[in-house]
Sequence to fold (156 residues):
Amino acid sequence: MAKFRKKGGKATPAISTASLPDIVFMLLFFFMVSTTMKEVDLKVKIQVPEATELAKLEKKSLVTYIYVGLPTKKYQGMYGTEPRVQLNDAFATVSDIQSYIAQERDAMKESDRPKMTTSIKADFDCPMGIITEIKQALRKAQALKINYSARKKAEY
Fold:
């Protein structure tokens, strides 16, 4: 019996790159779908106060934000330099908070409504009178879980 040998060594075949564009577009589509964009355009300046005892919120989808602070330079001509309340992307008054909370509560699932938390993001120099008025409006709207946003105090 004779043995047949191929001339030359075994070369590894080239990797096919024909499916590479498909893989790239699948990854691009996945990240486009799973990424969330910035939800609110801040129109007020907020320097969050410092705190020593902090707790992280569990589910951010159950949190409704109320922003309080001085209008940015862009809006100071229209709204002045006094602290203002911002709900979503618009300036509002304290009397608008009850309807805002009702609207946010209606947008949630029935099972998540009792777990809804209202987070007040207020500027460090914001007068306490505005915060008190907001808390009174939240009581009238039956939004009793309130969170105050703060950053961790730097330890020296």
Notes: The mean pLDDT is 89.
